[in-house]
Amino acid sequence: MTLPNIIQLFTTPSNIHKLSLENWQTLIRVLRGNDLLASFYYLLDRELLLNHVPHFALKHLESAEIYAKRQTQQIHLESESLVQFLGNADIQPIFLKGAAYVLRKDINHYGRVMSDIDILVPYSQLSLIENILKQNDWVEKTLDDYDEQYYRQWAHELPPYQHIYRGTTLDIHHTLLPPISGKLIPENELLSNLQTTNDGYLTLSPELIILHSVIHLFYNEDFTKSFRDVWDIHLLLMELEKHSDLTSLIKLSERLGFSDTLYIALKLRDKIFSTSSLGNYHRAQSSLHLLNYRYSKWTDLFINNVIYFAILPSHDLVDSYWSRCSRFIMFIRGHVLKMPLKILLPHLARKSYRYLVTLLLGRYHYEK
């Protein structure tokens, strides 16, 4: 079972007929390690292929589906609670990423698992929100002084909060990228690109949801489960393309300064899922006279030979030497994009030192 075989199953799921029992064992382990097992269950369900799955493999898929369904229920429970007690202070949280997919009932929410709930609020309301959360059984996760400073001085979100009884983790964003990166997204752009779900929850617009998913993936340093994000982007684009072309998305990416990042996402989507979104992208850019981002053979070379291998599903059973190298290159790239070198180098040196001290003196040495 190779990575190309696994990826092909997402474009041609009927190929499961060709899998041996040993192939199924490998597939289940790789998909579980990449948080895609329940998503694959729903893909096979949509294609009416579950009857062709071996009994032992189906049990794993059904177990993953039950777990994902429980998370969906928890998202609804926590979202309703947050809206209620924040609403008492006239604060309307905007739900992001996995929570938004669930509340909007996007196609990619089926089987989507997540580690936390993400909300976006205006920067001016952060102090008030923290006080309200503490009054409603939420506590800030224990961090050492340096990590606390990192979040509050450089990050795009507060330190994570956790519910003391339910254990749910909450990330409170005030923008989509760390301000220290130099990529500032005007708050009015975020607050003017919103939609309300049928149940009354606020999320970003479909175009901004896609762009946020793209930004989150390609400005990140951790690519160990990045194929899940690529699958999200692909399905979200499929939904958008049912109702419109990419013009509004391209205009938004141009206005916010992420044309290059969107180009990378669309090129990878075409390469992996055999779509033609990049051709539509070029035609729309030309008609809109948007030519700020110049594409070069070096850009495509980097996408095809580094980013592509970094975003493939990762697992010891299928990893190659180059896929590990590519993820390390993207790890460095993510840090460089998020921080200027004059801050990044001391930051990495300090984190490395503290890591070594923690190994010697224990994980609680730096905690308050």
Provide the fold topology.
Layout: H1 3-11, H2 21-33, H3 37-46, H4 55-87, E1 94-96, H5 97-104, E2 117-120, H6 126-134, E3 138-140, H7 145-154, E4 161-163, E5 169-173, H8 187-191, E6 194-196, E7 202-204, H9 206-218, H10 226-243, H11 247-256, H12 259-273, H13 277-288, H14 297-311, H15 321-338, H16 341-361
Helix pairs in contact: 2-4, 3-4, 9-10, 9-11, 9-12, 14-15
Short description:
This protein has helices at 3-11, 21-33, 37-46, 55-87, 97-104, 126-134, 145-154, 187-191, 206-218, 226-243, 247-256, 259-273, 277-288, 297-311, 321-338, 341-361, and strands at residues 94-96, 117-120, 138-140, 161-163, 169-173, 194-196, 202-204. With 368 residues, it is α/β, with parallel strands linked by helices.
Keywords:
368 residues; alpha/beta; Beta Polymerase, domain 2; seven-stranded mixed sheet; 7 strands; globular
Description:
By secondary structure, the protein is an alpha/beta fold. It has a single domain (3-361), classed as 2-Layer Sandwich (Beta Polymerase, domain 2), CATH 3.30.460.40. Helices cover 60% and strands 7% of the residues. The chain is built from 16 helices and seven strands. It has helices at 3-11, 21-33, 37-46, 55-87, 97-104, 126-134, 145-154, 187-191, 206-218, 226-243, 247-256, 259-273, 277-288, 297-311, 321-338, 341-361, and strands at residues 94-96, 117-120, 138-140, 161-163, 169-173, 194-196, 202-204. It has a seven-stranded mixed beta sheet. β6 (194-196) and β7 form a beta hairpin. α2 (21-33) runs parallel beside α4. The radius of gyration is 21 Å and the shape is globular. The protein starts with a helix and ends in a 7-residue tail after the last helix. The mean pLDDT is 90.
